[in-house]
Amino acid sequence: MNDENCDLLDRVVSAHGGLDRWNALSTVRASIVTGGSLWGMKGLTQDSTAREMAVWLHEQRASVMPFGAPNQRTAYTPNRIAIENTNGDVVAERWNPRESFLGHGETTPWDPLHRAYFNGYALWSYLTMPFLFTLPGVKAEELSLWEEGDQHWRRLRVYFPENVVTHCSTQVFYFGEDFLLRRHDYSVDISGALPAAQYVHDYIEADGLRTPGKRRAYRRDERGQAIEEQLLVSIDITNLRYT
């Protein structure tokens, strides 16, 4: 693995199911329900309808359905975001979509393609953690212990190269005594570098892998603490299955 902290990273990867099992699988599908205040900040409405999320494990590719209409889905890759119907006809598309966020602040409105791009890269990264930390060019270093209530969590600072599309280039991940992910800190670069602390829990075990079933991202203050009154995004994941 291309990092300087193989001991912690190896334990983390093993706790989530191990690379051998991960490499034997190709896609994951799940039902997702999302909420939180971010959507309103972006001038969007969000309902509690469950949607089907598909993520390719070994390439940056994802899709969610329905999106905008019952017969429509998204098609995400880093260089292109599209909305298609179930016949494969393109409803809307945008090439080099990251560029469309230049100059955006926290409350800059998003159009459907902005939203589809955010959904695509965010869910791809969440559903491939922590295995994406082993990709070529990704580097990690262990930080000092973090005290969270009566617990002490080990931490990895992870550096992502430009070709791995995610919230920002440097992120921090927190792990419990069982080496499962507990918290994830990042800034949403495409939304004015909005600082977030995302807590994960209710793990699901499927096909030998472990993934959080609930994610709650809060605004993070200057002391690195989550502001519990400011829930930005909630994600509930069920019906997880790999192929």
Features:
single chain; 243 residues; mainly beta; outer membrane lipoprotein receptor (LolB), chain A; 10-stranded antiparallel beta sheet; 3-stranded antiparallel beta sheet; disordered N terminus
Describe the overall structure.
With about 240 residues, the protein is mainly beta. Helices cover about 15% and strands about 45% of the residues. The strands form 2 sheets. It has a 10-stranded antiparallel β-sheet, with helices on one face. It has a 3-stranded antiparallel β-sheet with strand order 4-5-6, covered by helices on one side. The longest helix has 17 residues, at about 110-130. The radius of gyration is 17 Å and the shape is globular.
Count of separate structural domains: 1
Distance, first to last CA:
25 Å
Q: What overall form do the CA principal axes indicate?
A: globular
In helices, the fraction of residues equals: 10-25%
Strand order of the largest sheet: 3-2-1-13-12-11-10-9-8-7
Strand content: over 45%
Low-confidence runs of at least 5 consecutive residues: 1-5
Main beta-sheet strand count, sense and barrel state: 10 strands, antiparallel
Mean pLDDT: 96
CATH superfamily: Lipoprotein localisation LolA/LolB/LppX
Order of helices and strands: HHEHEEEEEHEEEEEEE
Number of strands: 13
CATH topology: outer membrane lipoprotein receptor (LolB), chain A
> What is the CATH C level class, in words?
Mainly Beta
Number of helices: 4
